[in-house]
From TrEMBL:
GO MF assignments: DNA binding
Plastid in keyword set: no
Signal peptide: none
Protein name: BlaI/MecI/CopY family transcriptional regulator
Record keywords, A-Z: DNA-binding, Transcription, Transcription regulation
InterPro entries in alphabetical order: BlaI_family, WH-like_DNA-bd_sf, WH_DNA-bd_sf
Gene3D superfamilies associated with the record: Penicillinase repressor domain, Winged helix-like DNA-binding domain superfamily/Winged helix DNA-binding domain
Source species of the chain: Mediterraneibacter catenae
GO BP terms, alphabetized: negative regulation of DNA-templated transcription
């Protein structure tokens, strides 16, 4: 498994924005997160600095502006984090995880149909 930096939930919100819009500058990140969170610009800039220090973001200085790109692929991060989640909470038992999800009321018929489709595709590949 790839070693990824530990990213807090707040830092993840910054990463989500950068993954969606990279390359993106400090002002763009700040403007968007000030609107969607209760964070101050200073808090957002601190989160960005932490992500750079952790190696999750890289930056380039263009004139007077810093432009950020992810150093970690979103798909790789989510893959590792979901595996870690299943391992931690379900002792690695994906069946227990899916069963737990399906027993909750937090899903729709389209969710279940999507799962069926994914499983069918996966079964067809093997």
């Amino acid at each position: 498994m790839v070693k990824l930096p530990q990213i807090s939930e707040a830092e993840f919100e910054v990463m989500r924005l950068v993954w969606d819009q990279a390359p993106v500058n400090t002002n763009e990140i700040t403007e968007q997160l000030v609107q969607s969170t209760e964070w101050s610009p200073k808090t957002i800039q601190t989160l960005i600095r932490r992500l750079v220090t952790k190696g999750a973001l890289t930056y380039e200085k263009k004139g007077r502006v810093f432009v950020y790109t992810p150093a970690v692929e979103e798909s790789e991060y989510l893959k590792v984090k979901s595996s870690s989640f299943v391992e931690h909470y379900f002792k690695g038992d994906i069946t227990a995880f899916v069963s737990s999800y399906l027993e909750s009321d937090a899903h729709s018929e389209s969710d279940i149909e999507s799962l069926r489709s994914i499983l069918s595709e996966r079964t067809g590949k093997q």
